[in-house]
Design a protein that fits this description.
Length: about 450
């Protein structure tokens, strides 16, 4: 371990180093003794000379700022934060309560074998912590829940540590050129695209519980239809397996809506399937009017008109044809011309409304086309690398009307469009987002 201090070193004339506890991307943590009261504390130290980018210092300072405002018995108490400047360096120190225990990762590495009876109490305690964090104003999202950041004491109590990745929900998580925060295998799909919400922490907790039950990183388990196929690798009750399925849903709106709801379901006070109303159409199979072609490097989705508009368009076209034919017999060609103009205009508008939409994404470019009679009537396009995230939002048009829109984010710029149905919109967002994750991070999903 590359340590900055040795046992016996005294920092700020107050804290004497006892031993290093661990090292990560945001500094080295030590066990130390507070010479003012002889209590043991944990000190995280960050050297300015050892960091490669300013984002690390920003996250370190954020952890200190967040810890100073948190009060929960399972979150180590903030004690002190200070910098020390020398002629050749500048160091930053965060002092917090020392937790007497080991991380879940260390316990598993040492051979700890846990079953459902041991894992469920851990889930209950972490959900209680998340419920506290998510109900703050604004809500606080941890963003890096994993076995290394959950400490288990000998008496079974657990503590959540490492708040450097934490995000207040109203702040942007990812900007052009930003640093991704999270750990592969424990990060939900939406977090790759910067759309982090409280339910993102729930997924990370579920992945952590899978690690305890299987002794394998979640990204090493097979994936079927975008979901981790874990049931054959764990020995748990069917009720707990159903709960894990719910908290590990790849689509965020299919997960438990909050830590409180997840906790109630785990304790048997709420049915697992009742927390989120599901649409009649499966979220994982494409809607009937979608035509999907997907390979490892190419995604094409064609959206056909809904059946009701296709039938309406056919009968409308037939009615216009009959009217034009009868008017030509009765009033002659000149009257036919003036009568046909508004009808033709209305027909063109209808055909444009029910036109086919085609989404195409490959390694270099993306394109959305609106097509009528084989001709492109509208198009948006750009470079795939510029897409930061894809999301669906509901826009309130008036008191009784809500319009669903799909948004492709390119930095501060965005492309908005809709395909006419909020559930179809969400399926397309999930499919396109999952495909982008596969392109960028090599995450393979068995699909259909």
């Amino acid at each position: 371990m590359d340590t900055q201090h040795q046992a016996g070193d005294v920092i700020s004339d107050r804290y004497r180093i006892v031993a290093p506890l661990g090292q990560g991307g945001m500094g080295t943590t030590y066990e130390a003794e507070d010479l003012s009261n002889y209590q043991r504390v944990a000190i995280k130290a960050l050297s300015l000379r050892q960091i490669r980018e300013w984002k690390v210092l920003e996250l370190f300072e954020r952890e200190a700022r967040v810890l100073a405002n948190l009060e929960h018995p399972a979150i180590p108490k903030y004690l002190d934060y200070f910098p020390i400047e020398t002629p050749n360096n500048r160091r930053f120190y965060l002092v917090r309560e020392l937790v007497s225990g080991e991380s879940l990762a260390d316990l598993v590495e040492k051979g700890w074998h846990s079953d459902e009876s041991e894992v469920k109490p851990i889930a209950v305690q972490v959900l209680d912590i998340l419920n506290y964090l998510h109900q703050l104003t604004p809500p606080v999202i941890h963003r890096d829940i994993k076995p290394q950041n959950i400490i288990r004491c000998p008496d079974g109590r657990v503590f959540l540590v490492d708040f450097g990745a934490v995000q207040e929900v109203y702040r942007n998580t990812l900007t052009r050129g930003g640093t991704f925060v999270g750990t592969l295998g424990y990060v939900p799909q939406e977090q790759f695209c910067g759309n982090v919400q409280p339910a993102s922490d729930l997924y990370s907790l579920g992945a952590t519980l899978l690690f305890l039950l299987t002794k394998r990183s979640p990204d090493e388990l097979p994936v079927r239809r975008m979901k981790i196929d874990f049931r054959r690798y764990v020995k748990v009750s069917s009720e707990f397996a159903d709960w894990l399925e719910k908290i590990l849903e790849p689509a965020i709106e299919d997960r438990f809506e909050s830590a409180k709801v997840a906790l109630e379901a785990l304790q048997g006070n709420k049915d697992v399937t009742s927390s989120v109303p599901l649409p009649t159409e499966s979220k994982h199979e494409p809607p009937k009017r979608f035509r999907v072609k997907r390979s490892d490097r190419h995604l094409v989705v064609e959206i056909l008109p809904t059946e009701i508009w296709a039938v309406a368009g056919f009968f409308f076209f037939l009615a216009i044809s009959v009217l034009l034919w009868r008017s030509s017999l009765t009033y002659g060609f000149f009257a036919l011309f003036w009568f046909a103009l508004p009808l033709i205009n209305l027909l063109c508008s209808l055909l444009h409304f029910v036109s086919r939409i085609r989404l195409e994404i490959d390694q270099k470019n993306f394109r959305v086309q609106w097509m009528s009679w084989g001709a492109t009537t509208r198009q948006i396009q750009g470079q795939t690398a510029d897409i930061e995230r894809i999301e669906r939002v509901d826009i309130k048009k008036d008191k009784s009307t809500i319009i669903s829109r799909i948004i492709f984010w390119e930095g501060i710029h965005q492309h908005q469009f809709t395909i006419g149905d909020r559930h179809d919109d969400q399926w397309l967002v999930d499919e396109a987002s999952n495909f982008l994750v596969q392109l960028r991070y090599g995450k393979q999903s068995q699909h259909y």
